[in-house]
Design goal:
heterodimer; A: 338 residues; mainly alpha; Cytochrome Bc1 Complex, Chain D, domain 2; 2 domains; two-stranded antiparallel ribbon; 1% strand; globular; B: 270 residues; mainly beta; eleven-stranded mixed β-sheet; five-stranded mixed β-sheet; 16 strands
Chain lengths: 338, 270
């Protein structure tokens, strides 16, 4: 009798658990999003948009599809190329639709789940709200969101993929952007030689690179904070002032004039050129700037005033270390390739 | 006793199941309710607003036509004569009114408890809490893939609270290619966590002698005038020629202060 009761209770429990489960069986080979153990807590709210195979596949298809642009000519992948850590290889600023020129350098896309702000001025604070920016920008993809949704709704392949990923009969803005977030959030770079060194392989870095690491920690890490190599904040680094007001464009505060988001330095060797406008072609030029070319200005970060006082040798050593942040596995991972 | 325990056990499991899986069932309304219909009627001073074809002038003799006049209304509150409030729930308190879309100018608020009401308050714009929510919580009037597609700043996440776009009147034989349109896009909810512009404005309209008397299953009607000229006049006179474009700049606060006073009640029908 007692056994029967336990059995009965178990059956009820199983039935209820089944009733409560919404997700389909996960595909064994697809692991979804996994946070590296040495990274801080993620910023992205995965409970609102967990990564699943169907959503990731859809996000990847969208990322590489020109359908997102007005005339089909430009995809996200046009200016965000895997070999450059999803920046625009060798472009100071990018050319979008009809070869129109933008006004800022296309940044890398990696470790987005830890990012608090998007775009150089941080005008966007939720990854899901980022894609509408290049999609509707007249010099990038120049599409209207309702028109893009109509194109996707008229496409039976996309309709089926959205149905599978989000169980929606028609494509809406939220699902579109959540699919793109699922793809971008999977772009985790944490397998560089520096990461190998952190896990205890002391021979992963040369002695010269270790000296560079030490210098970096003393001179650069307060803004380019390891392990993500950004503090997620905005700074004026003493570049020549220009018509681009930086962070002040979105906050309308004088105290934010000419401040730009600290870019992560992971894969920095491969994501040239540098700075918000691509003004520095090489890492040597960037280090030279921080060593001795900081321009004065009321909002220039106080830690940079007068330069960082790096010798030519020290600059070379820091660069040697920065190149250990290159994550070849990430840059060639076929899961992310077009 | 054993049987009782069994039943109790099953009951608890059932309760846990329902608590876990079911959305909260709506509470049965304790009081009877009814509906208020609100219509927004667009004017330029004392003339009805006609888009594109009709000529208007402001108080400093500048002539123009109007091609767009859109704004968000949200967070509506109705105040009873006893001082208590009925707050329209979050899931049904956002409205985008467009001068080009007659249907958008007529909104209805359902489930209002019966009673006598003396005041309506609302926000022009979208509150910061909703502005910062993910896209899946910004649907209906706030859907940037549909209704709100042209009322959203993609480069600086947030809604444009009010858009007024006008065109100068070109004299016969004048050069139309040199025309600079007058474009006023006002937004700014105060930012996520940085100090910045907050152009959210609250409006309160007293019903005066004409209380709304909400009885069971009747619909009261409030007819509201929205004077688009007041966007550009009031505490700050906007000179169309010297300030043809205003978006996210400190000056936008002056325009928000102006349009805070653009609404008035035409009449109330119980």
């Amino acid at each position: 009798m007692r056994a029967f009761k336990i059995l009965f209770a178990s059956l009820i429990f199983i039935a209820l658990s089944q009733a409560c489960t919404k997700e389909e069986n996960p595909i064994a080979s697809f692991k979804g999003f996994e946070a590296p153990i040495n990274f801080p807590l993620v910023h992205y709210n995965f409970s609102a948009n967990p990564v699943n195979k169907a959503g990731f596949d859809l996000g990847k298809k969208l990322f590489y599809d020109g359908i997102l642009s007005r005339d089909g000519s430009i995809s996200c992948g046009s200016c965000h190329q895997q070999a450059a850590a999803f920046a625009h290889l060798d472009h100071t600023i990018s050319h979008g639709i009809d070869d129109k020129i933008g006004n800022r350098n296309a940044p890398v896309i990696q470790n987005t789940a830890w990012q608090k702000y998007f775009a150089w001025d941080g005008g966007i604070f939720h990854l899901d709200d980022f894609p509408i920016n290049p999609i509707t920008n007249p010099v990038e993809m120049d599409e209207k969101m309702p028109e893009l949704l109509s194109k996707l709704n008229a496409n039976s392949t996309y309709r089926a993929m959205f149905k599978k990923a989000f169980n929606k009969d028609s494509v809406d803005y939220a699902s579109l952007t959540m699919a793109l977030s699922q793809f971008m959030n999977m772009l985790v770079s944490n397998q560089s030689r520096y990461d190998e060194y952190l896990t205890g392989n002391t021979s992963a870095l040369s002695d010269n690179e270790k000296v560079g690491l030490n210098l970096f920690m003393n001179k650069c890490n307060s803004c380019h904070t390891a392990p993500l190599f950004t503090d997620n904040k905005f700074h004026n680094t003493g570049l020549t002032t220009s018509s681009d007001l930086g962070r002040a464009t979105v906050t309308v505060q004088d105290s934010d004039l000419y401040k730009f988001k600290t870019p992560s330095l992971r894969n920095v060797e491969k994501s040239y050129p540098y700075n918000h406008n691509g003004r520095a072609a090489t890492l040597e030029a960037v280090l030279q700037h921080y060593a001795s070319e900081i321009k004065p200005g009321t909002t220039v970060d106080s830690r940079l005033v007068g330069g960082l006082g790096l010798t030519a040798l020290e600059q070379q050593q820091i660069i040697a270390f920065l190149k250990t942040l290159t994550d070849t596995k990430f840059l060639t991972d076929t899961r992310f390739s077009e | 006793m054993k049987l009782l325990k069994n039943k109790l056990f099953a009951l608890i499991i059932t309760a846990v199941f329902f608590a876990h899986c079911k959305p909260e069932s709506p509470a049965i309304p304790a009081t009877q309710t009814s509906t208020v219909a609100i219509s927004f009627n667009h004017f330029i001073a004392d003339s009805l607003l006609v888009l594109n074809t009709k000529n208007y002038s402001n108080s400093i003799e500048q002539n123009f036509t109007v091609d767009k006049f859109n704004y968000f209304i949200s967070n509506i509150i109705l105040e009873k004569t006893d001082g208590t409030n009925y707050i329209v729930p979050q899931d049904s308190c956002y409205f985008l009114i467009k001068s080009s879309n007659k249907a958008s100018q007529n909104i209805s608020i359902k489930n209002i408890p019966v009673g006598n009401y003396r005041k309506i308050s609302f926000m022009i714009g979208v509150d910061s809490a909703r502005s910062c929510m993910p896209a899946s919580a910004r649907t209906g009037a706030l859907d940037v893939g549909a209704a709100a597609a042209d009322m959203y700043w993609t480069w600086n996440t947030g809604y444009i609270f009010l858009k007024l776009q006008c065109m100068p009147i070109i004299p016969k034989g004048g050069d139309s290619s040199a025309v600079i349109p007058y474009v006023y896009h006002i937004g700014g909810y105060g930012g996520l966590n940085n100090p910045t512009l907050n152009n959210i404005r609250l409006v309160s309209l007293n019903f005066g002698e004409n209380l709304i008397l909400i009885a069971n299953s009747t619909t009261a009607q409030i007819t509201i005038k929205a004077d688009a000229l007041k966007v550009l006049e009031g505490s700050t006179q906007v000179n169309l020629n010297s300030t043809p474009t205003v978006m996210l700049t400190p000056f936008s606060a002056n325009i928000a202060n102006n349009y805070q006073n653009m609404f008035s009640i035409i009449n109330i029908i119980n």
